[in-house]
Amino acid sequence: MPARLSKPAASAGVAVCLLLAAGSAYAHSAAPGAGDFYAGALHALTALEHVLPFLALGILAGQQGRKAEPVLLVFCLALAAGATVALWTPPLPYIGLLNIVSAILFGGLVAAAWSLPMAFCYGIAAVFGLSHGFANGAGMIEQTKPYLYIPGVALAGLAVTAYGLIVTDYLLRRKAYWIHIAVRVAGSWIAAMGILVLASSGSAILKA
Amino acid sequence: MNTRTAARPNRSSLSKFALACLLWPALALAHVGQGDISGGFLAGVAHPVLGPDHVVAMVAVGMWGAQLGAPAIWVLPVTFPIVMAFGGALGGLGVPIPGIEIGIALSAIVLGGMIAIARRPPLWTAAIVVGVFAIFHGHAHGAELPESANAISYSVGFVAATGSLHALGILIGVANRWSAGAKVLRAVGGLIAACGFYFLTGHLIAG
């Protein structure tokens, strides 16, 4: 008699099938020309130098509590604005450094676990939203449709930060004390990664 | 068929799992050095995990934190990665620190020795001791950072591996709750210090 799949194994199998199905659906996009939307989203989502700070900002907002939800909207709009600016501005060579600094700042603030004034949160979301948006916007080429690409970047940012906020908010509602520490450790790891990457970029610039 | 027998893994599923485990590293390693995400990541994981002098010191950091108890057990995993990354940044920028390997061997001796004598120094003393050694360890890893194919995935792997070694030390340190476990913990601390002496004599003879 063939072994019957256990419940976790069965659900893992279903999850894999769903992931594969999503892949095939992608290739047959119902709306022709929507590809540039995904180009924008993937430009942000496939680069750790964007995903890590996005996640850190989401965790930071989750740590501040539900009142910080509008911070994500500010960030999303700033991403769109930054990507739009990139349409008319020549590429800035060191914008990537600013994005790495955002990983150190957001991660460090999560590690510190201070209660921050909301105005400060809006400020950092706006400034670094612009820098991340600009770096992503610079990825557009002549044929890219900006009205699809830019929403792709902005919504990818919103999705990642919202994921960070929702998971953190859910975890911090649990009573166990160690969860607070685990969230701070996550921030500390992201800040540490940022410091190392900044040093690596710095040494590359010094050598150039 | 009752639920208990259904939940138990049978031999065929176990062997499939074993086969998957065997195949997994082969799949992952096939991409090392191609400059893709997994290449940098695995190099970053491998660097702290494959050096026994780093491994014993990082596990000792977690064990000592667990032995000291709150708040050290919480302060440590939050601050250590950032301080170590600072040391890594110095290494990556090529700022020389003399006697890195000696410092790393000393860190195993001091941390292992502190666990063995089971004293509780004030938190700031423990923080300074661990912080100084964190910079030495970070510097040794960071010096190889510019050569890595993908700096960001190397950093992700390196920080995650070091953090996991601390977590392992903290888990071992949980044994401190039981009187027999506390004795075993002190003995392991002594063993780590002995490893430190071994590394130190190796460096002194070689250097």
Characterization of the model:
- The complex is a heterodimer of chains A (about 210) and B (about 210).
- By secondary structure, chain A is mainly alpha-helical.
- Chain A has one domain (about 35-205).
- Chain A is about 80% helix and about 0% strand.
- The longest helix of chain A has about 30 residues, at about 175-205.
- Chain A starts with 6 loop residues before the first helix and ends with a helix.
- With about 210 residues, chain B is mainly α.
- Chain B has one domain (about 50-205).
- Helices cover about 80% and strands about 0% of the residues of chain B.
- In chain B, helix 3 runs parallel beside helix 8 (about 150-175) and helix 4 (about 50-70) runs antiparallel to helix 5 (about 70-90).
- The interface between A and B is medium-sized, with 29 and 38 residues.
Low-confidence stretches of chain A: 22-26
Relative helix content of chain B: over 70%
Helix tally of chain A equals: 8
Estimate the global geometry of chain B from the Cα principal axes: globular
